[in-house]
Amino acid sequence: MPCTRYRTAITAHIEGDPLPQGVTEEELVTHLTACPDCTRWSKRLRALREATDDLLRRRRSGAPAKPV
Ligand SMILES: [Zn+2]
Question: In terms of domain of life, where is this protein from (predicted)?
Answer without folding.
Answer: Bacteria
